[in-house]
Predict the 3D structure of the following.
Amino acid sequence: MIRIANGQGFWGDSLEAPVEQVRRGPIDYLTLDYLAEITMSIVQKQKARDPKQGYARDFVEMIARVLPDLVERRVKVIANAGGVNPQGCRDAVAEVVKRLGFQGKVKIGIVAGDDLMPNLDSLLARGVELKNMETGEPLSSVRPFVQSANVYLGAWPVVEALRQGADIVICGRVTDTGLALAPMIHEFGWGKEDWNKLAAGTIAGHTVECGAQCTGGNCQVGWRDMPNYADIGYPIIEAEPDGSFVITKHAGTGGRVSIPSVKEQLLYELGDPREYITPDCVADFTSIQLADAGPDRVRFSGIQGRPATPFYKVSVSYSNGFKAAGTLVYSWPDAFAKAQLADRILRERLDRIGLQFDAVVSEFVGAGACHGLKLAGTPPADLPEVLLRIGVRSQNKNAVDRFTKELAPLALNGPPVVTGFGSGRPQVQEIVAYWPALMPKPEVTPEVTVTEA
C-alpha cells in the first residue's frame, strides 16, 4: 500500500496545505495540481515577457519550505507546476536545493513536450487541423489570436521520470488524474493494458484533484456541522496493488471524508459517467463501489476500465475581444426597483452615445441572480440590498473602456441610496477563450529528463 496526498487543487489554493500534508503524517507521494485551462494562457504571457518565467512560482516557494522534510521523510513530489516552462521551474527548484545544502541528495525530473506553440504552424501545415470539438471549425480560423496550445499528457511520462529516480517531478500540462495515477503504476508495476487498474488509479486521481473539495470543502451535505473548516484536511489516497483504494485525510484535521463528500467530487466535470476519457484509459464511473471504511475513510472497489483512445486532447486558448464588469449596491427601501432603474438608465446612456457591444449582461444579486431567476411583477420592497452587476463584451476595446466611465456617474445622477463604487472604474480585460481539440497521439513526443540537483 502507498499513500498519495494531494495538497493543491488549483494555482491559488492554500499555501499551507502542501506543507501540512508533508508534516502531519506519513505519506509516500505529494501531488500538486496548479494548471487550469485559463492558467496556460497566463503562464504563456508571463514567459513572453520574461523567458525565465512561465511556471507556478508558488511551487518553488513551497519546496523551499518543506525540502528538509521531503528529504528526511523520503517523500516524492509530482506537480504540473512547470506550466509552459518546466525547465525554468526545474532551474528555480535546483537553486533552492543548492541554497539549502541538499546538492547531491535530490534528483529533479521534468516532463515536457506538451507545449505545441513552437510547432503549431507546422502541425497545421501538415494537415493536423485541430478542429474545435464543439463547432468543427479548424484552428486556422483563429490562429492569429492563439495564446497557448497544450496537449494533455497522461501518466506514463511521469512514470518514466520516477523510474529514472526522480524525487521531484515537474510537469507541464499533464492531466490532473495522471499525477496520482503515475505513482501507482510505478510502485505496483501495472501494465499499459491493465485497463481496470488504470481506471481505478484514474478515478482515485479524479477524487483528490480538487483538494479539500472531497474532504468536506464546498460540500452541500452536512456543511452546517462540518468539523473545523479552518483546519480542513486535504485528501490522501491509500492505494492497493489490486486497484482498490481508500480516500482519507490526516488524523486530527478538520473537514470530513464521507460517501456524500466523495460523491459530490465524483460528479465534478463529469460528462458521460460510463466514458471518462483520459490519455491513459477510459474509466467507467458507473462501476464504482463505495463503502464506509471507518471514520474519515471511504473505500473504492470494483472499478472497470476500457482501452485508451488514439487521441490526445488539446487545450488551446485564444484572444476573443474585451470585457469589463462593474457593480453598484442599492439599499432598502425598494432596493430591487432602484437597481432595475439604474440598469435601464445605463443601457439608455450607452445607446445614446452610440456604443455597440457583442453582449450586455445584467445580474441582480440578492434578487435571484445566483439561480438565474427573474422576479416578475412588483419588486419585493423588503430586500435589504441588491447588488447590480453589469458587464459588457466587445471586439472594440475603446467601446468597453467607455462603458467603464459611464458606471460611476450613477452614484450621483441615478437612483438614491447607492454604494459599492469606491473601488473606482472597472478594469478592461482581455477575453481569453477556450478551444478544445483532438490530435493523434503519434504527433506528440513526451520529453522526460532527470538530473541531479
